[in-house]
Design brief:
By secondary structure, the protein is mostly beta strands. It has a single domain, classed as Immunoglobulin-like, CATH 2.60.40. It contains two helices and eight strands. It is globular. It starts with a helix and ends with a strand.
Length: 135
Amino acid sequence: MKKLHIIALLAFSASASAATVQVKIDGVTSARGVVQVAVCDEANYRKDCTLTATVPARAGFVMVDVPNVPAGTWAVLAYHDENSNKKLDTNFVGMPKEGYGFSNGAASRFGPPSFKDAAIPVGDGIVPALVTLKY
C-alpha cells in the first residue's frame, strides 16, 4: 500500500511540471545597479508578478534563470534598475528613465504592450526568452 502511495505521488508530481525560463536581457548599457526580471501570467501582468529574479547589471547582456514556472502562457518583463531602488523610475509624465523591455520584443507605444504581444508558451524543461532593453 505504501508503494502505491509513492507511485501516485510521483505520477502527480510528474504531471505538475514546471519549467525554467532562461531569459537573455540584451542591450544593458552599464554595470550600474541590477537587472530585475518578472515572469507574469495574464491575470498579474505588470501588477504583482510573483516569479521574479535579480542579477547584477553588466554592459552588453545578462542571463537570468527564473525556475519553477508552471506550464501555460506567460510574459517576461525586465528593467535595468540602475540605482537599485527596486522600481522602474519614471519622469513627470510617466515615461521610463531606466532601460526596460518585454519578451517577443513587444513594443511599447503610448504605454506598455499587451499581454498577447509579449506572451510566450511555457511547457517544461528550459524555455528561452529574449528581452531587449530600450532606454
